[in-house]
Amino acid sequence: MTASDTVHTAPTALAIADARLVEACLAREPGAWDAFVDRFAGLFRWVVDRTAAQRQLPLTAADRDDLIAEILLECLRNDAAVLRAFAGRSSLPTYLTVVARRVAVRGLLRTLEAGHVPAAAVPEPPPDETARTVNREEVEALLAHLADDEARLVRLHHLEARSYGEISRITGMPLGSIGPALSRAREKMKAHAQ
C-alpha cells in the first residue's frame, strides 16, 4: 500500500482545541471546566429541548436547567469517565450529543414515571387496556410495512429510546447510517398511515 492509497484527514483546529479542552479538564487545570461548560452548555440545551419536543413534552426553565445539570454531572461521574472514554472517532460535539440525549431521555422518562409533567403536556392516556392494545396494534401494523431491519431500528430508537451508539452496538450499523435509515423508515410509516 502506498501513501496515495490511504486518505488522511488532518484534524481541524476546532478538533484539536476540543481534544486539548478534554485533556485540560481531565488534568483539572484551573478554568478548564468553566471553559467546557461555556463551550457545550448551548449544545446541551439544544439536545434537551429537541429531546423534549420529540416526545411532545414542554419544559419549564427549571426542568431544562435540571436536565442540563444532569448531563454535566454525567460528564464528571466516575472520575470523568465520559470524557476519558472520548476516543476522537467522532467530533467532541457529536460524542457529547449522544451522551446528552441519553441522559435527557432518562431524565424525561423519570419525570413522566413520577407524574411531574403537567397534565396538558402528556397525551391523553387510552381509557382502558383495549384502547392501548388497539394503539399498539396500529403501531405494529405500520411497522409491518417496513423491512425487518427497518422495523427493528424504529423499535430500538423510538420505542426503547436507545441512542445511536447503543443501536450501532446492537445492530452493527455504522453510526452515520442510523439517522438516514430512521428517516427513510419514518417516511414509509407516514405514507402507510395516510
Give a nutshell description of this structure:
72% of the residues lie in helices and 0% in strands. It contains 8 helices and no strands.
Mind explaining what this structure looks like?
Helix 2 crosses helix 4, helix 3 packs across helix 4 and helix 6 crosses helix 8 (175-193). The protein is globular. It has 194 residues and is an all-alpha fold. It folds into two domains: 11-122, Rna Polymerase Sigma Factor, Chain: A (Orthogonal Bundle); 124-194, Winged helix-like DNA-binding domain superfamily/Winged helix DNA-binding domain (Arc Repressor Mutant, subunit A), CATH 1.10.10. 72% of the residues lie in helices and 0% in strands.
Please give the radius of gyration in angstroms: 20 Å
Write down the secondary-structure element order: HHHHHHHH
Task: Give the number of domains.
Answer: 2
Q: Describe the main β-sheet briefly.
A: none
CATH class of the largest domain: Mainly Alpha
Number of beta-strand segments: 0
Poorly predicted sequence stretches spanning 5 or more consecutive residues: 1-8, 118-134
CATH superfamily of the largest domain: RNA polymerase sigma factor, region 2, helix turn helix motif
Supply the CATH architecture of the largest domain.
Orthogonal Bundle
Helix vs. strand class: mainly alpha
Percentage of residues in helical conformation: over 70%
> Total helix count?
8
Indicate the mean pLDDT.
78
